[in-house]
Amino acid sequence: MPLEPRLGFGVILRMGDGETPEVFSEIAGIRDFDVEENAELVETTNHGSATSNGVPFREYIAGPIDGTEITLPLIYDYNEATHNTSTGLRSKKGQRINFELVEPGSTKKESFTAIVLNFSRSYPVGEVMAMDVTLKPVTPFVEADDT
Fold it and tell me: I need a labelling partner for 128 at 20 to 30 A (CA). Which of 29, 40, 50, 116 fits?
């Protein structure tokens, strides 16, 4: 199957309300952001490890996987339900929240839980108000059909 390059434009990130059943709302005004997952390295070098010119060559195994912090740059609207202090991200600092990520053109979603670590707002003269929200994923990203 040939590669089908796609723009990142149109990505959707939804946050859950924590209720049962959980309702997810699309976070408004998201700009460019990155998602990373990294495996830690655990050193296993020992007296029987291979050598290079008589010096031990370090050996490793893969350790725990860590979802790195995600910074969401948003066009900030204090009246927007997903931004405000009553139902939005500003009301969720320090909480574990469920999220769904849908890539453009995909019929799948990736669900994960993250702690909302912090947010910062910016009020530049001559530009839109902005808010950066930092999330720390605390569960793996699990793919499922987006229904």
Answer: 116
